[in-house]
């Protein structure tokens, strides 16, 4: 039999844990879910190659913290120590309880809840006998993993409270959690040391608990009557452990022990697994989004890398800040008390935060840093949807929706003028590139179609396609906005009719492929067309690369030094980094120099996520920071592959009279084509 008080405390802690778990589940229950879709989604991970992916990310990202390796070394060490220590001690403890003869006769509950955490019994029972090899191995593992956790916790305390490595304030709950975590392990080592002294465990046995053994040697000279404090101290340790277990569902920091593996899993499930069910869910967020909100531990990793934060220093508008404030509103409104009191009206709080979710370009940079694996961009977009549902959001979003409703483009120009840029070409064909049927549709997008600064992009692209003999067409006035600005506004439902319309028009042309020069259109289509659509989708850079490989495009020599800016929706969102670089390398004489932040570390230019509509000053400041980075390369020009990036960088450079050449890769290719 184990230490009775220890067991009683532990069981009480477990009961409080279960109550907290039910409260958490109650909030998820309020969200949008559909049993069938969820079960199918779970099975689709278990019975596909995704299970290998899950193993890989658990090992490489979850345990070995691949994401932060080589960045902040102390943080990496802290995470690895904790992430190896916890599973290690639990697995070793449970194995020990299952295989060691000392546990024969223990009830199932004791073996599960008590034995893995406590070596109290060993010191009493093993004093007169030689430990077996297994006893020794388990003892070493216990102290090794325990020591790792303690070291990790000490680093965490140092980073948070001394080095102030996170800009978020620690709540009282966080401080209690850290104390319980560290306190339990410190107490446990002391308890073991005191048991070694109480039972006069011979060195040949005690040495396997190497940390406790060392500690026992240090405290032995104090000459305290060890047997009188042995039992009370183990009881206190039991209380600490029970409090720790009980506190898990009530504290963000501790609850993420559960939510982080859950986020890893749900991220592998297909998006349709989180579709709303037939029932009317009270909370307009999916289970996945609620789990993700829960998983945010306010670690602050998303703060310094955020190009918006770099400009406005508003920590409450960063991912961690928005997740924390809105989670608190969601909890108060839809959590357990709401069941009795009815959903609380949080209009005041919602008003206070109304623009915070919109102070972001949805560039996705923060997702690379998030140790909780949160799809930050997706969750933030869903939170914008939540704000729209609650009627608390920046007014320009309504103007955007109204303009789109009227003319189907974000500029407010007549729909029939969408392909007016063709007329400016020297000798446009009679059909103005609008054919009855074609194998390829070039989807132009609103910005390139209407903004004078960016019309050169479609004008250059149709010339390249024409020269290369591609059978293509435009949709002209039949093309509507792709819906991306509405999705970014949090009005996803409204965007659906736009996607359906465009898809219908492309099908009417009998096209096999659609090509986009706009990364946001391309990304929106790739997301929308996932379900059973056989259209091939290309970004212009991929299409150009294909034409170069097929020998349809050849280049003359051009001696110049260029740098390339990765548009967020093409790079981070769609994973297209190499196609544009390969195009540039294919042009003889072109020297490509990279910016400090390139590929997935590329800094956003400030043009995305509808930020320009809400805070044009912030968007401009981000563009200015981008210009500084471009200038630092010493390149003759910056090439990009997005009309919005061109607008953003070029407009700011013109306003500030900064002589900088900004060009879309399509225009650069046309200028340097042979013949
Ligand atoms: S998506 Fe980009 S702009 Fe938005 S919070 Fe993350 S890093 Fe900042
Ligand atoms: S969103 Fe991720 S990176 Fe940002 S504070 Fe939360 S857990 Fe940390």
Any descriptors?
binds iron/sulfur cluster, mainly alpha, 57% helix, 4-stranded parallel beta sheet, 30 helices, 675 residues
Question: How would you summarize what this structure contains?
Answer:
This protein is mainly alpha-helical and 675 residues long. It is 57% helix and 5% strand. Bound molecules: iron/sulfur cluster (SF4) (2 copies).
Number of helices: 30
Average pLDDT, rounded to a whole number, is 92
CA(first)-CA(last) distance: 89 Å
Q: Give the bound compounds.
A: iron/sulfur cluster
Low-confidence stretches at least 5 residues in length (pLDDT < 50)?
none
Got a strand count? 8
| Computed CA radius of gyration, to the nearest angstrom | 30 Å
Q: Which strand order do you get reading across the main beta sheet?
A: 2-1-3-4
Describe the overall structure:
By secondary structure, this protein is mainly alpha-helical. The chain is about 55% helix and about 5% strand. It has helices spanning about 5-30, 35-45, 50-65, 75-100, 110-115, 120-125, 135-160, 170-200, 205, 210-220, 225-245, 250-270, 285-295, 305-310, 320-335, 335-340, 345-350, 375-390, 395-405, 445-450, 455-465, 485-490, 490-510, 520-530, 540-550, 580-585, 610-615, 615-635, 645-655, 665-670; strands at about 440-445, 470-475, 515, 535-540, 560-565, 590-595, 635-640, 660-665. It is elongated, with a radius of gyration of 30 Å. It binds iron/sulfur cluster (2 copies). One iron/sulfur cluster binds near residues 302, 307, 308, 360 and 364.
